[in-house]
Amino acid sequence: MCHHLNENLDIDEPKQLRFVCFVTISITFFLFFDRPNWKPEEKIQLIIQHWIRILEIEFGWINEFDKLVVNYIHTIMQFDTFRLSSKLINTFNGHTSDVCSIDYSIFDNCQFICSGSHDNTVRVWDIDNNKQIQSFNGHSNHVNCVKFSPYHYHNHHQHVICSSSSDNTIRFWDFEYNQQLQMFDEHKLD
Predict the structure, then answer these.
(1) Which is it for strands 131-136 and 143-148: parallel, antiparallel or unpaired?
(2) What is the predicted pLDDT for the residue at 41?
(3) Rounded CA gap, 166 and 177, in Å?
């Protein structure tokens, strides 16, 4: 089990998330038009089985390669994949609009997912505890992309996320201390 970032406790070896993937799901809506009674998990299962090769996919290779994190409308789902008995493991709820981007990383033996949404927020999820641990509300428009910063972690031991938004800003967030570190606003509309 992974403990909160600021706690000085003995940390056991966390469960390893083995495969992370961001799939743009909106392209698949036409596949299910004639099946309105399908649950989101059933739709995702079909995508995993038949369509994963043709969708826009962002991969993160982690250990044994059999987990999948996928964005579906307002939720983030974690799947145990690449097995005949694939199943939904976790769902991370919190965003109030479409999730545009996710990223995965390990800091201090803890596993995290960050997400950016059309609700203008950046959120951080502790995978081991299945909980949201931070929400950043500084953007004034859709958050289009989020990434963990390995540079800040390896060089300064900071837990930092970079986000970009339709408000024409790029922001750096320290999710351990819940603060915005820096904002770049040089992208102006002409």
Answers:
(1) unpaired
(2) 67
(3) 25
Number of other CB atoms surrounding residue 136 within 10 Å: 23
Rounded Cα distance, 16 and 29, in Å: 31
pLDDT in tens, 48-84: 554 444 444 444 443 444 444 444 444 455 555 455 5
Strand-pair partners of 77 = 70, 91
Query: Which residue bears the tokens 């995993």?
Result: 48
Q: What is the DSSP string of the chain?
A: -PPPTT-----PPPPPP-EEEEE--GGGGGGGTT-TT--HHHHHHHIIIIITTTS-EEEEE-TTS-EEEEEETTEEEEEE-SSTT-EEEEEEE--SS-EEEEEEEEETTEEEEEEEETTS-EEEEETTTTEEEEEE---SS-EEEEEE-HHHHHHH---EEEEEETTS-EEEEETTTTEEEEEE------
Q: Could you give all domains of the chain from N- to C-terminal order, each with its CATH number?
A: 19-144 (2.130.10.10)
